[in-house]
Specification:
The structure holds two protein chains of two kinds. Chain A is α+β, with helices and mostly antiparallel strands. Chain A folds into two domains: 43 residues, no CATH class; 62 residues, CPE0013-like fold (Roll), CATH 3.10.530.10. Chain A contains two helices and ten strands, in the order βββαββββαβββ. Chain A has a five-stranded mixed sheet with strand order 8-5-6-10-9, with no helix packed on it. In chain A, strands 1-2-3 form a three-stranded antiparallel sheet. In chain A, strand 1 and strand 2 form a beta hairpin. The radius of gyration of chain A is 18 Å and the shape is elongated. The N and C termini of chain A lie far apart (59 Å). Chain B is α/β, with parallel strands linked by helices. Chain B has seven helices and 31 strands. The longest helix of chain B is centred in the last third of the chain and has 21 residues. Chain B is globular. In chain B, 48% of the residues are buried. The chains are: A alpha+beta, B alpha/beta. Chains A and B meet through strand 5 and strand 6 of A and helix 3, helix 4 and helix 6 of B. The complex binds flavin-adenine dinucleotide and iron/sulfur cluster (SF4). The site of flavin-adenine dinucleotide (FAD) has 38 residues of chain B, from helix 1, strand 11, helix 4, helix 5 and helix 7.
Chain lengths: 119, 420
């Protein structure tokens, strides 16, 4: 049986390395990555792709109607819209600053939504 | 009586470039202020809520607002004065001093003067008018940056079903953003045979959400009377439409992402020489323009693809503006850095050979090339040779030239990319 080759573009940095993966018995042979991070990324990408979500949430402030936010950890790419549904129900009532938690434990997981700008 | 406030350095624009310039000018002991026409500091980064900023400087993947915040904090810690909501009405030079007339709602008209000015006004987007599309001009045709502003700052969705013209990074990022907020993005249409944005954005913005990218395709016509009702797309070959390939797409908006242009309107009256290739002023390694005392940085100088380099250029412009304000200038011995084979443009376009320091040089290739060698040279002297596996026009390259290696009597430095 021929070995299956997969090519993954690393999105960790603007270099955008094209990384080649070949499945071995219990691991992957990885090449084409210019740094260590690329190997981790490529293996994650072919097993269970993960992304951070960056979006905005509503606020009660007229001078600042939207607060930019992000998830503090990566989430499974396939669950993006499930996360968005919960995030979109948030209404910010306090003047927060970057790093403040906006929503704790999204989808009952150990993932928080944090502010990325100050109101 | 109206008095003129005297400064050493006045920075125009409070985005990442202006903030970095003001911070470094202040740290050099110059009395520095920032003029910003918007309500808040941070520039365009306030609306760039996605991540990927600051990898070079902070070794972290920050969002645009987080990156801006770090510099806003640094400026606040130093109590750098900021004039917000302020518009420059007039800029002129009297003797060695620049005089600015401004207005804002708090102070009405006011006047500032300084021996050194840093231009950090950023860039603006090319609009649909600047690309050739037939048909009506109904509501619903707007730039990707404007869509970004509507959604991320104001919280309004400007479309339910749209087509994106142009595969620049902002267009790609907005394709994802619109999808995430529930809109349908029919596809991204690019006239060129390759995407003009970064590969990582094609992957994480389009492929992640199964948004098709159509290369060699353009929007030929917009339909609709008051509001966009649809567009006709067309395959192209050598920029000419291929007959019979027209296809109608039903949509309520056409979003264009066809490039950025440095913003330099306010210096037009001073006739500061502008590089037709970058659309920013010609500068030397200190980022001083050909007009003594005027410095330029960030996207007002040339369109950068990494904000880290924007801040770096602010830093260079700010500290040199502070030095200039203190000591004025010895005469410059400027020679051009000339783009040769396969180089689209170079910044700085000149170097002052009276200084022997290390110089940061940016260049873009004019097309995608593989296995090429970069050469920086003048008659008989070779200063830099460097191999590149691949160079692409959207990805700016940064090199360091040590001027102590360059003799003082040469007339030009050349830079070229050639296959091996
Ligand atoms: C819509 C858009 C989206 C972008 N997205 C990305 C991205 O995703 N990633 C990326 O790396 N880069 C992005 N860029 C490029 C981005 O502009 C740079 O990374 C960086 O923000 C440039 O910094 P700057 O300080 O030069 O300009 P800006 O951030 O644009 O700041 C310029 C500031 O000057 C002010 N100003 C302008 N004219 C005047 C005047 N006459 N008087 C007073 N103030 C004035 C403006 O209000 C603004 O605050 C984007 C650019 C645009 C236009
Ligand atoms: S492998 Fe390393 S260098 Fe290449 S894109 Fe990924 S993070 Fe960047």
């Amino acid at each position: 049986m021929g070995k299956k080759l997969v090519i993954v573009t690393c999105i960790t940095c603007p270099q955008s390395c094209a990384i080649e993966l070949v499945k071995t018995k219990d691991d992957y042979e990885v090449s084409g990555n210019k740094c260590k991070k690329g190997k981790e990324y490529a293996i994650q990408e072919v097993t269970n792709p993960m992304r951070s979500i960056t979006t905005t949430v509503k606020t009660i402030f007229k001078d600042f109607p939207r607060l930019p936010v992000k998830t503090d950890k990566e989430i499974p790419l396939n669950d993006t819209f499930l996360f968005m549904e919960e995030i979109n129900s948030v209404l910010v009532k306090e003047r927060l600053k970057p790093g403040d938690i906006v929503l704790k434990g999204i989808r009952n997981m150990d993932i928080n939504l944090v502010a990325t700008f100050g109101l | 009586m109206l008095i003129t406030q005297k400064w050493d350095v006045i920075v125009i624009g409070g985005g990442p470039a202006g903030l970095a310039a003001a911070i470094s000018a202040h740290d050099q002991g110059a009395k520095t202020c920032i003029i910003e026409r918007e309500e808040r500091l941070g520039g365009i980064l306030k609306q760039c809520i996605h991540d990927g900023f600051g990898l070079v400087t902070f070794k972290e993947k920050l969002t645009g607002p987080e990156y801006a915040w770090r510099y806003i904090e640094q400026a606040n810690e130093r109590n750098v004065p900021v004039f917000l909501n302020s518009f420059v009405m007039d800029l002129k030079k009297e003797g060695n001093i620049f005089k600015l007339s401004l207005i804002n709602s708090k102070e009405g008209a006011f006047y500032l003067s300084a021996p050194a000015i840093v231009l950090a006004m950023g860039c603006r987007e090319r609009t649909a008018k600047q690309v050739f599309i037939h048909g009506t001009r109904p509501a619903g045709v707007f730039t990707a940056g404007l869509a970004q502003y509507f959604i991320n700052i104001q919280g309004h969705m400007p479309t339910k079903k749209c087509v994106i013209l142009g595969s620049g990074d902002i267009g790609l990022i907005m394709a994802r953003r619109l999808t995430l907020e529930g809109a349908t993005v029919h596809g991204v249409y690019e006239i060129l045979p390759e995407p003009s944005g970064l590969t990582r954005n094609v992957v994480q913005c389009l492929q992640d959400y199964c948004i098709p990218l159509h290369l060699n395709t353009t929007v030929a016509k917009v339909h609709g009377k008051n509001r966009v009702e649809g567009v006709t797309i067309n395959s192209v070959k050598n920029f000419k439409p291929i007959p019979g390939t027209e296809k109608y797409i039903d949509c309520d908006a056409l979003i264009v992402s066809v490039g950025l242009i440095p913003e330099n309107e306010i210096i037009e009256p001073l006739n500061v020489p502008i590089d037709p290739k970058t659309r920013g002023p010609f500068v030397d390694q200190n980022l001083m323009t050909m007009f003594d005392g005027i410095f330029s940085c960030g996207n007002a100088l040339h369109v950068n693809d990494l904000v880290d380099y924007v801040s770096e250029s602010g830093n260079i412009a700010g500290s040199n503006a502070a030095n200039f304000a203190k000591e004025n200038l010895q005469k410059r011995n400027l020679i051009p850095v000339t783009p040769k084979d396969n180089i689209l443009y170079v910044v700085p376009q000149y170097v002052d050979l009276n200084q022997k320091s290390e110089v940061v040089i940016f260049f873009r290739s004019s097309r995608t090339l593989r296995d090429v060698k970069l050469k920086v040279y003048s008659d008989g002297n070779n200063y830099i040779s460097k191999k590149y596996k691949v160079v692409r026009p959207p990805e700016m390259e940064r090199i360091i030239l040590n001027l102590s290696k360059v003799p003082s009597n040469i007339s030009e430095i050349n830079i070229e990319l050639k296959g091996e």
